[in-house]
Design a protein that fits this description.
By secondary structure, the chain is mainly alpha-helical. Among the domains are: 243 residues, Leucine-rich Repeat Variant (Alpha Horseshoe); 154 residues. The chain has 30 helices and no strands. Helix 1 runs parallel beside helix 3, helix 6 packs parallel to helix 8 and helix 11 runs antiparallel to helix 12. The longest helix is centred in the last third of the chain and has 31 residues. One of its GO terms (molecular function) is ubiquitin-protein transferase inhibitor activity.
Length: 599
């Protein structure tokens, strides 16, 4: 026998002797009613076990620590399996021992199996109510006292098994545990890399809990079953969101989990048509969380994200929609034909776009879905303005989220798709509301380039509307040709903060605003119209004195100063200012001519 083997054997025996001593002391303390003594011995036992698990986790390739871990776990399993062991001793050990041995789960496959077997013994021999409390406390400790690999997955699987042993007050007991389960699942999954095998084990445990809740529902009847189904529905939607965030980059693997989770959708009475517009979700939360604190409700913070993502996954894969017993093609047709529902869907989908840690490939699929329900929609009657006003805030928020995608997307394809979605959604909004929304987007924009893009979209709308307006095919109330255009120009050329715009930072936005003003002035002058009021003498003088001349002073001073510097930075600034200067002077000439003609 080698020296290393002898050393390992000696070390393992020492640990076993210490364990045996602590367990004997605990047993005697319980038998004698000396709970202080038993608690002290359990603390020593946990401390000893933790020293072994810590060593094993920090040196997973070390053979000696692995042997020690397996030896210790095997001994504990053998000890607890003894049919003559007093139940009071098992109960005393159940409050602390599971947390200590669960840390071994990530050491090796054999350790994980032994840990599961030990947890199963506690589940079999102890009260379900006590085990739910113990496992919940263990899950709640993740990130506080431990972040050992496999730790959370062990207790998720344990919770799934103990749920099946609950004999009464099923909803109440599960309701207490679910928030802790979801918070631990979220924390643990976000800590792992999407390629980590532990992530898959984690979500298998989460799905096992859903299976157990469903199995329990089927044993109950009436209100008890309905309440538990509501809880299951919220749980599933939350887990779909967490799975998507954590594993969305690996679509093929993530898909298998989403398919399983989607199979609960019809059982919970959830429909894609309701999920995509958020219908009934708040009611579901209120039914489950009635009278609960905000802290409790926060555990379902991703439920609406999960509702939208469940539909997006159905759009991605027929396998998912079939598991949910839903038809995405029919859903899209219904949304395309029902404007109010479509706007509700547009308003809710922003939660996916705003989810910063959601993989880009899923945001791309969400954009595809959005384009699928909004592209090439025939404009409906202007009576839809009233309905649109009900959705203004939510749709505007979605448009803001899309503009952020345009600015932050990692590649040109995604930026192009996001821009197409922006134009598609805007085109679906009645003109009177559309201009208000675009003004809101421009006011909230922190990017000069994005502001420029939005102003160019306004100009495109003007160009499309003008011939129809002249031919009386549309009325001014359904057109961009109104005084709001001048307000938009003023927003950029004379910002609410006061003074002319900051250059060169705002060069892109200023250039687009000047081009918009020039286009409107030329079009109204040559067409002998004044829909916007642009050629009214008071508006001409205001533009000349308050917008253009102050801007000219800034541009002239900056160009003069930049020419003196003569460095590369100065050259770059000049490249941005030259087109601004050109269009600015053209606008000044046009305004001066228009003022002369108005005399």
């Amino acid at each position: 026998m080698s020296e290393q083997t002898l050393s390992s054997s000696s070390s393992s025996q020492l640990f076993i002797n210490n364990l045996q001593q602590s367990l004997d002391l605990c047993s005697k303390g319980v038998e004698n009613g000396d709970f202080r003594k038993s608690e002290a011995s359990i603390s020593e036992l946990v401390e000893s076990i933790s020293s072994i698990s810590d060593a094993a986790i920090s040196a997973v390739d070390d053979e000696e620590t692995l042997i020690n871990s397996i030896t210790v776990l095997s001994y504990i399993h053998s000890y607890l399996s003894n049919p003559t062991l007093d139940q009071a001793v098992i109960d005393a050990l159940s409050f602390e021992l599971p947390k200590a041995i669960a840390k071994f789960s990530g050491v090796s496959q054999r350790c994980s199996e032994l840990v599961e077997n030990i947890i199963d013994l506690f589940i079999t021999k102890c009260s379900p109510r006590d085990m739910i409390s113990v496992f919940s406390e263990a899950l709640d400790s993740y990130g506080k006292t431990t972040d050992a690999p496999g730790y959370v997955a062990t207790f998720l699987l344990g919770v799934s098994k103990v749920f099946l042993n609950i004999q009464r007050r099923h909803f109440e007991q599960m309701k207490v545990a679910i928030p802790i389960v979801l918070n631990a699942l979220k924390a643990a999954s976000f800590d792992l890399d999407d390629s980590d095998v532990g992530l898959e084990i984690l979500f298998k445990g989460a799905i096992a809990i859903a299976d157990s809740i469903q199995a329990t529902c089927k044993k109950l009847e009436g209100e008890a079953s309905a309440k538990l189904r509501n809880l299951l529905g919220l749980y599933v939607l939350q887990v779909i969101a967490v799975v998507s965030i954590s594993m969305g980059n690996r679509e093929s693997i993530c898909l298998s989990f989403v398919v399983h989770l989607s199979s609960f959708v019809p059982y919970c009475g959830l429909l894609y048509a309701n999920l995509i517009i958020g219908h009934g979700i708040d009611l579901l939360v209120s039914h489950v969380c009635d009278g609960d604190t905000d802290d409790y409700i926060d555990c379902f913070s991703y439920v609406k994200h999960g509702a939208v993502l469940s539909v997006i996954w159905g759009h991605i894969s027929d396998e998912v929609s079939q598991a949910a017993r839903q038809d995405v093609h029919i859903l899209k047709d219904e949304l395309r034909s029902t404007q109010s529902s479509r706007w509700s869907a547009v308003g809710l989908i922003k939660c996916v776009f705003n989810l910063g840690n959601l993989p880009w490939n899923l945001k791309k699929h969400a954009l595809e879905f959005l384009l699928g329900i909004t592209e090439n929609i025939d404009q409906q009657e202007t009576s839809e303005d009233t309905k649109c006003s009900l959705h203004t805030l939510s749709v505007t928020s979605t448009l803001q989220a899309i503009t952020l995608l345009i600015m932050t997307a990692p590649n040109a394809e995604l930026r192009k798709m996001a821009f197409a979605a922006l134009k598609s959604v805007l085109a679906d909004i009645p003109a009177s509301s559309r201009l208000d929304m675009m003004q809101a987007l421009i006011r909230s924009s922190y990017s000069a380039s994005m502001t420029a893009i939005l102003i160019d979209c306004v100009r495109e709308n003007l160009r499309n509307d003008y011939p129809k307006l002249k031919e009386a095919k549309i009325c001014t109330s359904n057109s961009f040709w109104n005084a709001g255009i001048l307000d938009l120009v003023e927003l950029v050329l004379r910002p609410p903060s006061g003074g002319p715009p900051s250059l060169p930072e705002q060069s892109d936005a200023v250039l687009s605003a000047l081009n918009l003003y020039r286009y409107v002035l030329i079009t109204e002058s040559t067409g002998k119209t004044n829909y916007t009021g642009v050629i009214s003498r008071s508006n001409l003088q205001k533009a000349y004195n308050e917008w253009l001349l102050p801007l000219r002073n800034v541009v002239t001073a900056m160009i003069s100063e930049t020419k003196k510097d003569g460095e590369q930075l100065g050259f770059d600034i000049m490249c941005g200012l030259n087109p601004v200067e050109f269009v600015l002077y053209r606008c000044i000439e046009l305004v001066e001519d228009s003022i002369k003609q108005s005399i």
